[in-house]
Amino acid sequence: MNADRDFLKGNEALAYGALRTGLNAYYGYPITPSSEIPETLAAEFGRGTYPEFRAFVQAASELEAINMTIGTAATGAKAMTATSGPGFSLKQEGISYAAAMELPLLIVDVNRSGPGLGNLGPEQSDYFQATKGGGHGGYRNIVLAPDSVPEMALFPSLGFELAFRYRMPVILLADAFLGQLKEDLTFPEVPAREFDTSWAVTGARGDHRHVLSSLHLELPDQSRHVEHLRSKYEEIVGAEQRSEEIATADAEVVIVAYGICARLARAAVRSLRDRSVRVGLLRPITLAPFPQDRLNALIDGGVRNLLVVELNSGQMVEDVRLVAEGRARVESLERVGGLLPSSGEVEAAAEDLTSSGDLRSALEAMVQ
Amino acid sequence: MIGAQELYETKLGPLPTLTGKPTHYCAGCEHGTLTRLIASALEDLGARERTVLVSSVGCSVLAHEYLNVDAVQAPHGRAPAVMAGIKRVRPDLLVFSIQGDGDAASIGLLELLYAANRGEPITIFLVNNAIYGMTGGQMAPTTPEGMVTTTTPFGRDLHQTGPPLDASKLVASLEGPAYVKRVFLPVTPTPSPEFFNARGALEGARAVRHAFEVQQKGGFAFVEFVSTCSVNWKLSVLESKRYAAKVLAPLFPAGLYRDRFGVEAR
Amino acid sequence: MPESLVVGLPKSRVVVDAERCKGCDLCVVVCPQRNLHLSERFNRMGYHPVEFRYHGGRGDCTACGLCYWVCPDFAITEVSRLRP
Description:
Chain B is α/β, with parallel strands linked by helices.
């Protein structure tokens, strides 16, 4: 596949997006609904179309996969692994080590329903695990949330750029819907990026050697190391918040939604605006760092009603509340188990938060 | 005037592949012996600048402090997977791990067996001292029947724990590996109570060299070093060597289990 | 070189870094000539470090190197032979 235009599943688009940005190695363990990623990559590895793509291994377990990814990343090469919920849990051990050793690598989680085996439907319930560190110890990862097949293709490039710039794992958090959804897309021109890999293990040079270790036995050393990780993340919070806004300028109510929910919210906003209801959308593109600056600006600008739409029992809503700090009403529309709200339900929930919606509720309460 | 130094020819000397840091290993521990065997082999091969050590978790966790080579620290048991990830994209590098029996034969058994089964061109040195050394003397997969450890305070009961696990035989049961060898590394008692022989170290030196050569030929190499842990066995250094010779040597017999490339024949 | 300079010099030497030694005894028990023994004194780590004597209990050091190979602490830093 080399044509720039195609009609692909999100998972397939992600695989090609990674290949086009110079992916060197993929290691993974099959799991629905992300298996099209290794399937697509296996076919291209066999064809040899992408000369930079030097390693593909179907690992024996998620643990083996993430640790192979770590090994390749330690040499400064571009390594990726992909999975879904249960596999993402297993990968957390390795992600913690990769964060500690400051290794750039890309982890894709095509979020399915959980906890446990759950089902194969879409959820956003790995939000906490992705954005709050996920494994043991204190660290944060950068988390990117695509909302379309074109973004599934584009974000591996962005992911590697951020991973190498900050030397840390980057998580691409999609969901079962986005992984399976087919859309038309045009692959963007991705310039071949050269990253600084002077830290990588490629053999000692005279007296200079490279040691990548997460072990700091001296207490002050470990303290400094964790402090370094934290200040790095603070720098990221300052520099890398990404979001998209639709019709927020005069909005009375702002919907906060990412991934598949953002698509539903977009349709709801369009419909409400057609009826002159002043509702807008803030779509976090980076879930971590959370786009707190834009949300703050909206609240400072007078937005008093926020509606969080997400496919879990209330995860991102906590981050929204943390930013709002009581300055805005934060309501939540949640669906779990693989179910999605309709755009009509999103529309109704948003309208309920407008002043006219408040008035209607009050009238209904009086009638009852 | 000719100095005394110039009159002598160094037969064995300091190795630049060792950092020179004092080790954290207990007195008489084979981890230290193995470290020098590895440094010596890397120098013989001229490989220091193209070598990557993957340190594991256990007493070998600080191996990169002593070996003056590039190194990556693997999570507990995962060294073979990390090594495979390095080697797949950098086949020019010489990649090896030093792992304990808990690391390789318990928590990391899957990673060990699958790397072996795929015949990844890597070198694994397993130090089998039949106990968890770093964590303070708990039962290991290789602990012999009856041995008192902190988690088998009445001796290892095979009805409860199953028998000791034989990593070399497991690895050799697979098609993938090119070289599988078990060496009895400790000094060995002789009929004279005052003397021990050092054959283990000399055989170990050869096995280390062969295991690197096998990797350079594209094969998976695994060497198990039967070792001691006097501190956690609660024996003196020399008593621990006698115990190893009496109990571990028959349980984990030294031998060549696989030599696909015939490196030992030459 | 004039032969007189060489006369009387030991044929081989073992150099011990006493500060690295943990007194484990391994070199002592593998030395075929009994040329190594633990000192009465303590090193900085509190161990009785090993000491080398050319004329041992059984004979002179042959620079066989066994002590070097078994030493877990790289405390036997050098084994050398008198040049012929």
